[in-house]
Amino acid sequence: MAMGTSTRKLNIGMIGFGSFSHFLAKTMMKQGHVVRATSRSDYSHQLGTNFIRDMEEFMGLEHDVILICTSILSVSEVVKSLPFHCLRKPTLFADVLSVKEHPKQILLQEVPEDSDLVCTHPMFGPESGKDGWKDLNFMYERVRVRDEDLCSTFLNIFECEGCKMIEMTCEEHDRLAAQSQFVTHTIGRILSEMQITNTPIDTKGFEKLVQVAESATNNSLDLYSGLFMHNRFAKQQMKNLESALQRVKRLLEARMLRENGDK
Ligand SMILES: NC(=O)c1ccc[n+]([C@@H]2O[C@H](COP(=O)([O-])OP(=O)(O)OC[C@H]3O[C@@H](n4cnc5c(N)ncnc54)[C@H](OP(=O)(O)O)[C@@H]3O)[C@@H](O)[C@H]2O)c1
């Protein structure tokens, strides 16, 4: 089936119901899919009886898709503790973590052989996606897919909202995300440490920097730490940032010495 054409409604089970899951669930439900969730904390006030506290009961429901939305730091512990024996049928397992090699490896290790796997990263969040998902990037890798129809129906949730669908390996994602997303979060955190705020004489460039600082700190520290600890390319980018700052500083100092020497 071509993507973008499905009308099939899915039973989606979310594991981890924090802020990003809430945000995704709203659109999934708007499209007519049934969303049930479980999480470490109690979210029954938001989802009513579709929030299932007991993990065995949750896994025993006939989900078409189980979507892992937990933090990067907790995914290993969470997935390894899932009672897979309670699954009633082969299920598509998907994740939305902001690093990709790490969950791929865990899911390949833990998910039963007869269930399919797709690793994804919606490259947007509750703030950047608040006015819709049109033209926002959505990365995915079909890691182990036999039920093409089910996988396409799941991916179609994002495609039919207008996301730009980008298929690439988890390794390629992590290499690129370290130099784009991780660097953005790090600059944002540095600017926030500097306590930058708007001034009456802001340039457009500075207004953007204030936004970068705000959006970096709107995300949890768990998320940012996960980007560093579980993307093997991030440490090199941190070193690149440090050495780039030193080079820029040396450039200015050398220029100042030259100017002073000429006088
Ligand atoms: N925020 C974004 O813009 C964005 C965009 C794309 C992808 N993502 C990914 O989406 C996932 C969720 O992100 P988030 O923004 O909601 O915040 P997050 O801080 O990365 O994750 C919060 C979620 O992790 C669960 N959790 C944390 N520690 C846990 C533990 N020790 N055991 C079990 N569960 C634990 C929380 O459960 P409780 O709420 O029940 O405590 C909550 O569901 C992350 O993997 C993130 O990388 C986020």
UniProtKB/TrEMBL annotation:
- TM annotation in the entry: none
Keywords from the UniProt entry: Oxidoreductase
What would you give as a GO molecular function for this chain, any one?
prephenate dehydrogenase (NADP+) activity
Does the record carry Oxidoreductase as a key word? yes
What Pfam families does UniProt report for this protein, alphabetically?
PDH_N, TYRAAT1_C
Ranges for the Prephenate/arogenate dehydrogenase domain? Answer: 10-263
User: Could you tell me which SUPFAM superfamilies the record lists for this protein?
Assistant: 6-phosphogluconate dehydrogenase C-terminal domain-like, NAD(P)-binding Rossmann-fold domains
Q: A GO BP term, please?
A: tyrosine biosynthetic process
Which superkingdom? Eukaryota
What name has this protein been given in UniProt?
Prephenate/arogenate dehydrogenase domain-containing protein
**Which source organism does the UniProt entry give?**
Tagetes erecta (African marigold)
